[in-house]
Amino acid sequence: MLINQLSVFIENKKGHLSKITKVLKDASVDIRAISVFDSAEFGILRMVVDKPDEGVAALKNAGHVVKQSFVLAVEPSDKVGSFHDVFNVLFENDLNIEYVYSFVMPNNTGAPLIILKVDDQEKAIDVLTKSGIIVIPKEEIYNPS
Amino acid sequence: MKIWSDQETLSREEIQKLQFERLSKTLTHVYENVPHYQNKFKAAGIKPKDIRCLEDLRLLPFTTKEDLRETYPFGLFAKPKNEIVRYHASSGTTGKPTVVGYTKNDMKVWTELIARIVTMGGVTNADTAQISFGFGLFTGAFGLQQGLEEVGAGVIPMSSGNTQKQIMIMQDFQTTALIATPSYALHLAEAAAEMGIDPRKDLFLKYGLFGGEGSTEEMRAKLNEAWGIFSTENYGMSELIGPGVSGECRALKGMHICEDHFIAEIIDPETLEVLPAGSTGELVITPITKEALPLIRYRTKDITRIDYTPCDCGRTSARMAKITGRTDDMLIIGGVNVFPSQIEGVLLGIKGIGSNYQIRVLKKGYLDRIEIDVEISDHNLLDSVTFLDRLYKEIETKLHTILGIHAGIHLVDPKSLARSEGKAKRVIDLRSENL
């Protein structure tokens, strides 16, 4: 159920993001979700892409620091309080969320999907599934129907 | 204009006679009391009595910062600890500082030399002098304080930093002489203007005594213009005594070397041969009255030339020109000596970053600023911004501990810094471009 995520170091410099997206474009890697975590001096770009291994190889080749790690994607239902349901389940099970970002898939009609990095990912999948929250398998993200 | 001491107007013959007497005494003193020198002299096959005239000085081995480093902290001291009354230190080429010490008599000499130099700059007992050098291990602030008090000036030991308060005190105490690095003095003038104070009208400054870093005539013109002052420059280094080695008089024809206490030579830094009078080369200084730390032929690594003709001011002492460069890679950042090797030593000891780095020195306003690009190498740092933050702070803190100044750190992609074939260009000094 876990999804490959690419984390790339970004210098606090004009044009650095486009340098990274150019590398992925040239390697025909499609970005599904993207988010930037930054401080005053530097940042980390986190992405979910359709071909993670190709993406990592291309970025490394181009001289970037890249790390692959695993995250969860969940699909909250389109109603008031549905995000709260997700976070509350994790909280009640003593799970700590390291970061969150959201994105929309082309075939997605309801609420945006959310990417989660939780300190214990396996346990998170388990408790979320048991609470009836949809955890999206990676195939669906890489190759949407 | 007043001349502080009659020693400043001795004839060339008198100076040379005095220099030789004092050199002979100093050589015996180091040979008998400093094993490191005894070994150096033996290795060179020379004894103090072999030095029969001033010209024989060139037969003696040189001393460098390396000698001080090898014998850290007190190995070159020629007096026991119970006779040392003051310690100072400056940054060394590696982690350990260069330590210097003074006996009671050294302190008396030092005070006398600064008194001469502040007198050259125009300061008298009618003046109120604000010392905006940092008080601490560096010699600048304490040295000037002693000499200024000796001439009877009122000293404000302001130290550096706290710019707004500097201006307030300057106005309220009616400071007439400013003691600072030239770059800090320019920064202060700018800060005063920002506070709505016109340094020329609202303040009382008459003199600027600048040192701790080199400067140019352009900088002097700017300082004089900004403050409405007459500024002079003085020269020294902690290894030799601190400030007090030489200073400009109001004729502004070079810095008068206190020749009754220091013998100056100019050498070719490549061949190490003494160059004829008037040549440009590396300044080598032998202090000849110091008790605690008498160094023989100390290589300053500063490039200058010496003029032996008498000056318009009446002093007969030789004058050295403004320092035009260094024979090593030492940087002077706001008066603080920084060696790229110190920075390298810190960076190589930190995990998660590569071995390539680049140092940029620039002016932020009038202040020197050092920025260092560091390549990150460990992809595990990307798990959390906190990891990167921690790395950033680690680099910053460790550099501050070693250098004593803040450096701006930029984390950059691996291999993004220019690789050069052969000797890497680690340092880019952009300061002259935006003066």
TrEMBL record, chain A:
Superkingdom per UniProt: Bacteria
Query: Do you know which InterPro entries this protein is assigned to?
Result: ACT-like_dom_sf, ACT_dom, ACT_dom_pair
Which chain positions lie within coiled-coil regions? Answer: none
Q: Which residues form the ACT domain?
A: 5-73
PROSITE patterns, per the entry: ACT
Q: Which Pfam families does this chain map to?
A: ACT_8
Supply the name of the protein: Amino acid-binding protein
UniProtKB/TrEMBL annotation, chain B:
Its annotated pathway?
Answer: Aromatic compound metabolism; phenylacetate degradation
Superkingdom, natural source: Bacteria
What is any one GO biological process for this UniProt entry?
Answer: phenylacetate catabolic process
**Can the keyword Flavoprotein be found in this entry's annotation?**
no
Its protein name is Phenylacetate-coenzyme A ligase
Q: Where is the AMP-dependent ligase C-terminal domain?
A: 335-431
According to the UniProt entry, its GO molecular function terms are: nucleotide binding; phenylacetate-CoA ligase activity
Q: Which UniProt keywords apply?
A: Ligase, Nucleotide-binding
Naturally occurring in which organism (per UniProt): Acetobacterium bakii
